[in-house]
Every structure is written in structure tokens, then in C-alpha cells.
Design brief:
globular; mainly alpha; single chain; 153 residues
């Protein structure tokens, strides 16, 4: 039997959501999903190099979701509630996944985005158990976004 979120978990969940509404983070999230399409570290450096606005936006998005997923992975957030209401982190994961190993090697940090990765892998299983085919459909939609974005740029 699944447990209900505690009052503390629900309160923290709302705080995590409220942080997503901060104006600069909203701007960063919007930029990230419109622009961050990468297949290599070179792509990432071209699109979001450190010291550029794109680089700052990318790190804001990645660090926000890494922190939120850390709270989830440590059990401070209720997993079902988080997965039911916070799918955006999985979209972020899908964008960075192709270059994660390169990033970890470049920065000599095997733990870079480890919480995001751990949560995304659990989410994929969780979602497939509840809505088979949803992850594949999401990936297909995200793949279709890429050429449309490139054409409009």
C-alpha cells in the first residue's frame, strides 16, 4: 500500500514548486527548453558556455533540478507526489543525458547530476508501470521539437 505524503513533505513540495516560480529561474527554464539541444560537449560549449547567459541559465536549471531530486532521493519529498506533479525534471534529464559522461569526465566529477540521474531512472520505471508507452511518446515529442526549434532559430 502506498503511503500518503506527510504534512512536512507536502510543505516542502510546495516550497520546491514555489522556487520554480522565481522570475530568473522561469526565464532560465524557458531558455533551456527552447535552446539546449546537444549531442556532444562541444554542442553544449557552443550553446551554453561558462560565462555566457546561456551557460548561466543552463546551470540554474541543472542545479535547481539536481537539488530538488536530491531532496527526493533522500526521502524528504514524497516520491509519488513528486513524480505525479513534477515531470519537467525528466525533460531536463533527457536533454543532458547524451553528454553526461563527457561532462563528468571534463570536470572530474563522477557525482555531477547523480541525483537527477537517479530520480529520472526511477521515474521512467514508475511511469512505465502506470502509463505504459508514455516515456516513448515523450521522447518522440521531444525529438520532434528539435528540428522545429532549429528551423525557427
Amino acid at each position: 500500500m502506498e503511503t500518503k505524503p506527510t504534512q512536512d513533505q507536502a510543505q516542502l513540495h510546495l516550497q520546491v514548486y514555489d522556487l520554480r516560480r522565481e522570475a530568473r529561474l522561469r526565464q532560465a527554464r524557458d531558455w533551456f527548453f527552447r535552446n539546449y539541444f546537444v549531442n556532444s560537449l562541444d554542442d553544449s560549449m557552443r550553446i551554453a558556455a561558462p560565462g555566457t547567459e546561456g551557460g548561466a541559465f543552463t546551470m540554474m536549471v541543472l542545479s535547481y533540478w539536481e537539488q530538488a531530486c536530491a531532496l527526493l532521493n533522500y526521502g524528504l519529498l514524497h516520491e509519488d507526489l513528486f513524480f505525479e506533479t513534477s515531470g519537467e525534471f525528466f525533460g531536463v534529464w533527457e536533454r543532458v543525458k547524451p553528454i553526461l559522461q563527457e561532462l563528468r569526465e571534463r570536470w572530474a566529477n563522477r557525482q555531477f547530476l547523480a541525483h537527477l540521474e537517479q530520480a529520472a531512472r526511477r521515474f521512467e520505471v514508475w511511469m512505465e508501470n502506470r502509463s505504459p508507452g508514455h516515456i516513448a511518446t515523450m521522447r518522440q515529442m521531444m525529438a520532434q521539437m528539435r528540428p522545429q526549434t532549429a528551423k525557427s532559430a
